[in-house]
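Researcher: We plan to redesign the surface later, but first we want a full-length starting point. C-alpha cells attached.
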C-alpha cells in the first residue's frame, strides 16, 4: 500500500508497470516532430464518422483496443478503465467504454486527465484492489473549438497566446509487478487560481498550478529537478513554460536544462500555425504514450516526472465572467523499482 510523503505525494510500494501504450493522432500531429512515435495517423478529421464527437470516441476506443492488443490483454482482463476527455459529460469516454465493455470510471481533469488516470489506476493497483487497469484520454481540435469557443466556420482571429487543441487519443495499460517503466510516486494537485480571465491564455492560467505541484513534489520527496532526466508538463505552451522556468528559478529550483512541455514538443511551433503551442487532453497523453514510453523502454530516459496540467473552465463559467482555475497532477516514472538510485 502506498506510503504518504508530506501533504500531497504518495510513494507506491508495489511495482506498478506501464506494460504497453498506444496512440492515435490527427493530420497536424502526424506532421509534427513526434510523428515517428505515434501508432495510428488519421487521414482526416472525420475518420469515417458522421460527426467530430463520434470521431473522438472512436479514437479513444481504437487507442484502448490497440494498447490492450500490444499488451496481450483482452477487455475482460482489464479490471477498470480510467478515462476522460474535454466534452460535456465526458461523452467520448463513456461511449468508448460502452463499446469496450470494461468497468469504467469517467474522469474530468481537463488537460490533466491522462495523468489523473495514471495516478488513480496506479494507486488502485498498489492498494491491491486491482491487478490490471487502463488509463485513456483524448481531445479533438474540432470538438473542442465547437464546445469552448466558436464554430469553425466563424473564422475568428486567434491571439498570440492561443494554443491548438491536439487531435489525439492515447491509452496505457498498467499491471502489477511486470517490467519497467514503473510508476513510483503520485503527487495530487490542488486547484490554484491566479485570476486569469482570458480563456485564450491557457498557459498563463495553468502555470501557477504546475508550480504549486512541482514545489509540493520536491518538498514531499526531498528530490530536486536534477534527480530527473526530464520533467515534462502537459500543455503550458511557450508562455506557460517560460513562467514555470522563471518562477521555479525564483523558488530555488533550476529548471533550465531538463524541463520540457508537451505543448512545445508536439508541433513545430515555427513552421506549423499553432501560435503558443499545443493543448488538450490528447497533448500530454500522446506525448507520454508515444515518445516518452519509447525513450524509457530504450533506456534513453530512466527517470521522468510527468506533470499533467488542466484549465478547469467551462463555456458557462467563461460567459459568467469567472476566472480560469488550474490543476496539475504529477506521476514519477522510473526504470528502477521504486525509483531507487
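Model: Full-length starting sequence:
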Amino acid at each position: 500500500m502506498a506510503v504518504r510523503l508530506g501533504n500531497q505525494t504518495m510513494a507506491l510500494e508495489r511495482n506498478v508497470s506501464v506494460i504497453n501504450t498506444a496512440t492515435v493522432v490527427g493530420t497536424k500531429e502526424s506532421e509534427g516532430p513526434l510523428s515517428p512515435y505515434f501508432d495510428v495517423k488519421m487521414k482526416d478529421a472525420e475518420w469515417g464518422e458522421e460527426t467530430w464527437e463520434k470521431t473522438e470516441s472512436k479514437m479513444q476506443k481504437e487507442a484502448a483496443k490497440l494498447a490492450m492488443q500490444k499488451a496481450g490483454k483482452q477487455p475482460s482482463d482489464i479490471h477498470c478503465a480510467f478515462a476522460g476527455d474535454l466534452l460535456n459529460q465526458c461523452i467520448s469516454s463513456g461511449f468508448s467504454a460502452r463499446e469496450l465493455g470494461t468497468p469504467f470510471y469517467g474522469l474530468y481533469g481537463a488537460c490533466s486527465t491522462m495523468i489523473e488516470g495514471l495516478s488513480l489506476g496506479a494507486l488502485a493497483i498498489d492498494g491491491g484492489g486491482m491487478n490490471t487497469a487502463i488509463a485513456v484520454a483524448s481531445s479533438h481540435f474540432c470538438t473542442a473549438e465547437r464546445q469552448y469557443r466558436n464554430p469553425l466556420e466563424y473564422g475568428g482571429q486567434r491571439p498570440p497566446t492561443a494554443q491548438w487543441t491536439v487531435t489525439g487519443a492515447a491509452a496505457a495499460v498498467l499491471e502489477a509487478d511486470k517490467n519497467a517503466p514503473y510508476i513510483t510516486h503520485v503527487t495530487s494537485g490542488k486547484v490554484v487560481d491566479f485570476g486569469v480571465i482570458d480563456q485564450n491564455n491557457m498557459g498563463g492560467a495553468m502555470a501557477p498550478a504546475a508550480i504549486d505541484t512541482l514545489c509540493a513534489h520536491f518538498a514531499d520527496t526531498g528530490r530536486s529537478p536534477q534527480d530527473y532526466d526530464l520533467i515534462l508538463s502537459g500543455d503550458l505552451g511557450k508562455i506557460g513554460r517560460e513562467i514555470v522556468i522563471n518562477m521555479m528559478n525564483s523558488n530555488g529550483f533550476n529548471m533550465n536544462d531538463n524541463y520540457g512541455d508537451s505543448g512545445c514538443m508536439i508541433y513545430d511551433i515555427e513552421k506549423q500555425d499553432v501560435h503558443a503551442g499545443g493543448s488538450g487532453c490528447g497533448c500530454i497523453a500522446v506525448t507520454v504514450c508515444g515518445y516518452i514510453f519509447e525513450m524509457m523502454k530504450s533506456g534513453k530516459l530512466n527517470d521522468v516526472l510527468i506533470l499533467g496540467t488542466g484549465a478547469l473552465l467551462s463555456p458557462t463559467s467563461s460567459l459568467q465572467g469567472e476566472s480560469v482555475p488550474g490543476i496539475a497532477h504529477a506521476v514519477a516514472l522510473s526504470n528502477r523499482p521504486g525509483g531507487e538510485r
